[in-house]
Design goal:
Rossmann fold; 8-stranded mixed sheet; binds S-adenosylmethionine
C-alpha cells in the first residue's frame, strides 16, 4: 500500500520538531539538504571576557542533550528521516564542530551515505579563546555526502571555479563569521546565537543544486538557507522548532529581493554540455583557411600547416590537432588550447579555441551531454579523449 502525502510545501517554513515533520514530507522529493543541527556544545559555565563582559555563547535548551548517547540517537533519527526525503541523486551537507562532527560523521557512514568531501570553514574572524587555555577555535567542518554511492549528483564545478577566479575550488574555505548588517538583531541583541554567514550557504547552494531545485533545511534558525536559496532562484523548505526564530526567518526571507530570472546570470555553462566541434568544421566554414600556419604554444615552438581536410601537417607528420599535439608533448594534450594562430588584428598568437568559441556562438549548437566529446578542460577528460582517438 502506498501512503498519500501532501505536495512538498515549497518556500515555506514549517514549525515543529523535524523528527516529526520530516516523516510527513513526500519521499525522494528534495534535491539538496543543508543541516546545521544542535552541536551539543556542553558549555559548563558562563564565560567572561577579560574586560568583564559576558560572552554571548550558545546555552539554549535546543542545544542540550543529557548524554552523548542521547545526542547520537537524535542524530541518527534526523539523518535517517532526511535520507527518506532526499532524491537518489541528492546530496546533504552537515556542519559541525569538534563537539559533534565526529559522531555525526560516524552515523552518516553507518547509514550508508557516501562522503564526497569534508570541507573546513576557516573563520576569517573567529572568537578568541578568552581563557588562553587552548588554541583559538577558528574553524568548523562540513561534511558533503551523497545519498547513494555512485549515483549521479549535482556539482557545479565550473561555477565554483568561477567563484575562485578560474582556479579549482579547494576544500578549505576562508569566510568570515556572520557579523555587521547581516546579523539579525532585535533591541541590540542577536536574534539567534549561531546564525551562519550567507557566503557559506551561497557556495553550498550554488555548487550542489540547480536553478528550480528544492533545498531543505531541517534546522532553519534565522533562515540563512532560505534567504540564499531565494537569491539564487532555488526553492526551499525550512523546518524550525522555535516560533521566535520562525518569525525572524519569515521576515528575512520575504525581504529578499529576487532578481528576475535571467539564465546567463544564474547558470554557469558547463563545457561538457557544449556541442562537439571538429577542427575540420572551422576549416570547412572559413573560420580558418587551408595553408594557415599554426604555432605550438606562444614561445616560438613547433609550427604546423592547416590542411584542407581539417588535419594539420607538422614536420612531415599528418594528423588531427590533438594527435600532433600529443606527439609533440608525449602526453595527454588538448589541441584546442595548445595550437595558436597569428591574429593580425590584435597582433598576437591566439589559441584556436577562440575560433571554436566564435563558431559555437554563431551556430548556437547544443547537444545532450551523453553525446558530448571528451574535451573539457580537466585532465581526466583529456585522457579520455586520447583514448577515444587511439
Ligand atoms: C544551529 S541552529 C541553525 C542556525 C541556522 N543555520 C541559521 O543560520 O540561522 C539550530 C536550529 O535548530 C533548531 N532546532 C533544534 N532542534 C530542532 C528540532 N528537533 N527540530 C527543528 N528545529 C530544531 C533550533 O531552534 C535552532 O534554531
Amino acid at each position: 500500500m502506498t501512503e498519500d502525502y501532501s505536495p512538498l510545501p515549497v518556500d515555506t517554513i514549517i514549525q515543529g520538531n523535524c523528527l516529526e515533520i520530516l516523516p510527513t514530507l513526500p519521499p525522494e522529493s528534495v534535491d539538496l539538504i543543508f543541516a546545521d543541527p544542535p552541536y551539543n556544545l556542553q558549555l559548563q559555565a558562563d564565560l567572561w571576557r577579560p574586560n568583564l563582559t559576558l560572552v554571548d555563547g550558545v546555552d539554549e535548551d535546543w542545544d542540550k542533550f543529557d548524554t552523548l548517547a542521547a545526542y547520537d540517537e537524535f542524530t541518527r533519527a534526523w539523518l535517517t528521516a532526511c535520507r527518506r526525503v532526499l532524491k537518489p541523486s541528492g546530496t546533504l551537507w552537515v556542519i559541525g564542530s569538534y563537539h559533534n562532527i565526529y559522531r555525526v560523521g560516524k552515523i552518516i557512514q553507518d547509514l550508508n551515505y557516501w562522503i564526497l568531501n569534508d570541507v573546513v570553514w576557516v573563520k576569517a574572524n573567529p572568537m578568541p579563546n578568552f581563557r588562553g587555555m587552548r588554541y583559538t577555535n577558528a574553524h568548523e567542518t562540513l561534511l558533503w555526502v551523497q545519498k547513494e554511492k555512485d549515483a549521479k549528483y549535482t556539482f557545479n564545478y565550473h561555477a565554483m571555479k568561477g567563484l575562485n577566479e578560474g582556479l579549482q575550488m579547494r576544500s578549505d574555505w576562508f569566510i568570515p563569521i556572520c557579523t555587521g548588517v547581516e546579523r539579525l538583531k532585535e533591541n541590540g541583541k542577536k536574534v539567534h546565537p549561531t546564525q551562519k554567514p550567507e557566503a557559506l550557504l551561497y557556495r553550498i547552494i550554488l555548487a550542489s543544486s540547480n536553478v528550480g531545485d528544492v533545498v531543505l533545511d531541517p534546522f532553519f534558525g534565522t533562515g540563512t538557507t532560505g534567504a540564499v536559496a531565494r537569491k539564487l532562484h532555488r526553492h526551499f523548505v525550512g523546518i524550525e522548532i522555535d516560533p521566535n526564530y520562525i518569525r525572524a526567518a519569515n521576515k528575512r526571507v520575504n525581504g529578499i529581493l529576487q532578481l528576475e530570472f535571467d539564465p546567463p546570470v544564474f547558470v554557469t555553462p558547463d563545457p561538457k554540455n557544449l556541442a562537439r566541434v571538429p577542427f575540420g568544421a572551422l576549416v570547412e566554414q572559413g573560420f580558418i583557411e587551408p595553408g594557415v600556419v599554426l604555432y605550438f604554444g606562444t614561445d616560438g615552438g613547433a609550427q604546423a600547416v592547416v590542411l584542407a581536410d581539417g588535419n594539420i601537417l607538422c614536420d612531415g607528420q599528418r594528423g588531427s590537432i590533438h594527435e600532433i599535439a600529443r606527439k609533440l608533448r608525449n602526453g595527454p594534450s588538448n589541441g584546442w588550447t595548445l595550437w595558436h594562430y597569428w591574429d593580425a588584428q590584435t597582433k598576437a598568437h591566439v589559441p584556436i579555441d577562440k575560433l571554436r568559441e566564435a563558431y559555437r556562438q554563431q551556430s548556437q549548437i547544443r547537444i545532450e551531454p551523453a553525446e558530448m566529446p571528451d574535451e573539457a578542460d580537466d585532465t581526466q577528460n583529456l585522457f579520455n579523449e586520447q583514448r577515444k582517438n587511439d
